[in-house]
Design a protein that fits this description.
single chain; alpha+beta; 60s Ribosomal Protein L30, Chain: A; Phosphoribosyl-aminoimidazole Synthetase, Chain A, domain 2; 2 domains; six-stranded mixed sheet; four-stranded mixed sheet; disordered N terminus
Length: 354
């Protein structure tokens, strides 16, 4: 006997999937998504795909760039704290700040949220954060999917991922081939651990018996809130910097730390000599190192240690680069310079922070 739609919905609900909750979540997130609209978006009445018209008149040889990522285990802290309004910013930052490394301007993103149970207000909070991240990055949120996975995930569990697309002029792609000996290495300050190293963060919290809801004087805030500080979105700052000075390469400092990520952007015959004395990591890094008994070597191999993005610029443009970033409210400083070598970034000196 064929079931009617009501019966099917009832059976699906009995299996743990609430169609009505999903529809309400979509309604709640619409106002957030609307904030990210760009003029190149094309309406799709079906809603099955996001459409975006590439402005070919703006480019001679447009090259599309794409990136995909998630947030990782930082989502578990958001769930523990029952705070879901910033984790979407982390998602966007992980995607768009990879895109700009090649010189691309982020154009649009799509997201995917998997959860054990659709709680419309919670889903709307998550999407609100994604929309805020897209707003900061100047890109449109043109589509997404929310999937309810009862049995595979607990009622309060969720995970999220996203993909982004950008565009760069064919003859303006940045990378190792542009870097020259003597170039200046410019650091852009991070807002904290960003979205990397949180398996170690949670291990430290658990092993040291730390209370996420406790106020920590040396961090000037509640521990859980400090650890949930959203990732800084550098996309528009990098786009502006590329338009103002001679940028040769970028490196997004994520898992693996500063030296490992910057090395990926270096040619095989050049090194980057970096000086720790040029900055002091934020207190959260010292706190984690102390509470977890983590060595400096392990900290630097896991966390960004206060440097979230690096730009390699022509030596004569170093001062101007710092002026541009300061004007945009981005903490920045000259971290080092490029020398002859073997494709490695090397840290020396002491910053005294950790």
């Amino acid at each position: 006997m064929a079931a009617d739609s009501t019966g099917t919905a009832g059976a699906y609900a009995a299996a743990g999937v609430d169609i009505a909750a999903g529809e309400r979540a979509v309604d709640l997130m619409k106002r957030h998504v609307a904030r990210t609209r760009r003029p190149e978006q094309v309406p799709d009445a079906s809603g099955f795909a996001g459409l975006f018209r590439l402005d070919t008149a703006k480019y001679k040889d447009p090259v599309l760039a794409t990136s995909t990522d998630g947030v990782g285990t930082k989502v578990l802290l958001a769930q523990q704290m029952d705070r879901h309004d910033t984790i979407g910013i982390d998602l966007v930052a992980m995607v768009v700040d990879d895109l700009v490394v090649c010189g691309a301007e982020p154009l649009f993103m799509t997201d995917y949220i998997a959860c054990g149970s659709v709680v419309p207000e919670r889903i709307a909070e998550i999407v609100g954060g994604i929309a805020e991240g897209c707003h900061q990055a100047g890109c449109a949120l043109i589509g997404g999917e929310t999937a309810e996975h009862p049995g595979a995930m607990g009622p309060d569990e969720y995970d999220l991922a996203g993909a982004g697309t950008g565009v760069v002029e064919g003859d303006a792609v940045l990378g190792p081939d542009r870097i020259r000996e003597g170039d200046a290495v410019i650091a852009m300050g991070s807002s904290g651990p960003h979205s990397n190293g949180y398996s170690l963060v949670r291990h430290i919290v658990d092993r040291a018996g730390l209370d996420l809801s406790a106020h920590v004087p040396e961090l000037d805030g509640v521990l859980g809130d400090v650890l949930l500080t959203p990732t800084r979105v550098y996309a528009q700052d990098c786009v502006a910097l590329t338009g103002a000075v001679e940028v040769h390469a970028y490196a997004h400092i994520t898992g693996g730390g500063l030296a490992a990520n910057l090395s990926r952007s270096l040619p095989a015959h050049l090194d980057a000599e970096l000086d720790r004395s040029t900055w002091v990591p934020a207190p959260v890094f010292g706190y984690l190192a102390e509470k977890g008994g983590v060595s400096r070597e392990d900290m630097e191999a896991t966390f960004n240690m206060g440097v979230g993005m690096v730009a390699v610029v022509a030596a004569e443009d170093a001062g101007r680069a710092l002026e541009v970033l300061a004007g945009r409210g981005v903490p920045a400083w000259q971290l080092g310079s490029v020398t002859a070598g073997s494709g490695r970034a090397r840290l020396s000196g002491e910053h005294g922070g950790v």
